[in-house]
Amino acid sequence: MSTFVHETAKVSKKVRIGENAVILAGVELGEDIEIGHNCVIHKGTRLGAGTVVGDGAVVGKQPNPAKTSSVSYSEPLAPLEVGEGCIIGAGAVLYAGSTVGNNTMVADLASIRENSRIGDFVLIGRGVCVENGVEIGNYTKVQSNAYITAYTVLEDHVFIAPCVTTTNDNFMGRTEERFKYMRGAHVKRGARVGGNAILLPGISIGEEAFVAAGSVVTRDIPPGKLVMGVPAKVVRDVSEEEKLKD
């Protein structure tokens, strides 16, 4: 077994690197970082002090879209930037062009695609898929196996329960016209979305709204309302005791 560290990589003090790890050109590792076994840290990636990268993670990978993909890139994207005190789980994959804030966790087998912006103190659960161009605010939690489609916005203090599905294309890949309308949901500050709920393209979930488990959200949800059903309908107000305390 052996570890490869490129001669141009900048490795600070107290960095621990596992067996068979690969640290490529221009990588910057802050102090007191731990890199697990069999990891690949791609060209130019920057990891903040105190960050831990689990075994087998791939960090800073350049995207290589399929020929039939709706996205393409003519030039390499900017290197991935990860803040201080983060945890990147075993088998996680993080792409170039994205940024991850401080004290954020990306759990085992999760992925964060290119050109996404992830805030501070965020939890990305096990097996979560965050697609390209997503914005996630501070203190937001996305639980295991949720699917966050491209061009979704999750503001601060949002809660996304396990197996939630977001969508962004009402045409499901047919017609060129779809590109004019392609966008994910916008889930506003303090809103909560229950397990296995489905959010249709372009839906707005108001501040402090609550989407019950299993709901299919087909229209915008006003602030502070609890909705449920297929399609989801307003049932009542969210109680004051459940709302965020500023």
Structural notes for this entry:
By secondary structure, the protein is mainly β. It has two domains: 1-63 and 77-120, 3 Solenoid (UDP N-Acetylglucosamine Acyltransferase, domain 1); 140-239, 3 Solenoid (UDP N-Acetylglucosamine Acyltransferase, domain 1). The protein contains no helices and 33 strands. A twelve-stranded mixed beta sheet has the order 3-6-9-12-15-18-21-24-27-30-32-33, with no helix packed on it. The chain has a ten-stranded parallel beta sheet with strand order 2-5-8-11-14-17-20-23-26-29, with no helix packed on it. The protein has an eight-stranded parallel beta sheet with strand order 1-4-7-10-13-16-19-22, with no helix packed on it. The chain is globular, with a radius of gyration of 19 Å. It starts with a strand and ends in a 9-residue tail after the last strand.
Task: Give a brief rundown of this model.
The protein has 246 residues and is mainly beta. Helix content is 0%, strand content 30%. It starts with a strand and ends in a 9-residue tail after the last strand.
